[in-house]
Amino acid sequence: MKKTKISTLVLGLAAFGAMVSCSKDNETSAPDATIIEQGKGIETECSYVDSYWPSTAVLSTTLSSGAGTSSDVTLMTNQNTAIKTFWRGSSVAAPTFRFVQNGTNWSSTYNAISYSTGRIYYGEGIFRDAKSKDASNLINVMILAHEYGHQLQYAFGLPSKKESTARPNELEADGMAGYYLRRGYGKSTFSSIATAYEFAAAIGDYNTTSSGHHGTPPQRRSAVRLGFLLADPANAKLTATQFDYNFFYYYDGVLAGTYRLAKPEGISEATHNYIMSHMEELRRIQSGQMSDEEYFNLD
């Protein structure tokens, strides 16, 4: 067996785990969780042993009737490929994408997990709730873009910034989601994604000394905003490693309250000036000083 990194996007329950039988095959079961975290799991050739899904859950290529429609499945399947292609082109395979079903016990599948073995498992519970808040499925696309951000981290050894908590990993994945929604998904104004992003930002926490700390809600808000700004069409499209460098270059300035930064390599003068003009705004977001009304109406 070998250790497998996983990262999860979750809201609410207590985690438990169970051994998945090889008789269920490689794509029939997984385990339940409750906090967004960069965790560890164990993979064998025919089963997972981790604490992220209940033992009664099964993997599926479709959604049950209570969770979504065939059109929803098509959208998510296509987006799984589209997000991969946006970041890595056509020569790399898309992650294996599966929904996780557990009957009508929606809370038990309120999670989305990105595995370092090239898999993204998406709980019907979180999909169903996200769709109920936005019928266009923008929230679900945002969550999927965040989870693919972790796939990029696995592939390229990111994030380059290391801390004793999961904060850099999660904030960067938030930024990558904001970048994709503007540059890849075509959302030209921040107000068109801000409300959707709150679904994930609400999972931020204030346990700053915990290894599972993912950033505070205001920090997560500012991370997705910075990703959106980096997606400025005037700038050349960034690779994952270029995004990582530039994201933390500016975000460290946001956290430090530094507003006079030299232009980093690979960013146009116009884009650098554009982001610098938003540094005070980013500081106010990450410190929690910006009101919801102002945040939701940023351009």
Describe this structure in words.
The chain is of the alpha+beta class and 299 residues long. The chain contains 10 helices and 8 strands. The protein has an 8-stranded mixed β-sheet with strand order 2-4-3-1-7-8-6-5. Strand 3 and strand 4 form a beta hairpin. Helix 1 runs parallel beside helix 3 and helix 3 crosses helix 5. The termini are far apart. The relative contact order is 0.11. About 13% of the residues have low confidence.
Which structural traits does this protein have?
299 residues, 10 helices, 8-stranded mixed beta sheet, alpha+beta
Radius of gyration: 18 Å
Report the biggest beta sheet as strand number plus sense, adding barrel if it closes.
Answer: 8 strands, mixed
Percent in strands: 5-15%
If strands are numbered along the chain, what order do they take across the biggest sheet? 2-4-3-1-7-8-6-5
Oligomer: single chain
Q: Figure out the total of helices.
A: 10
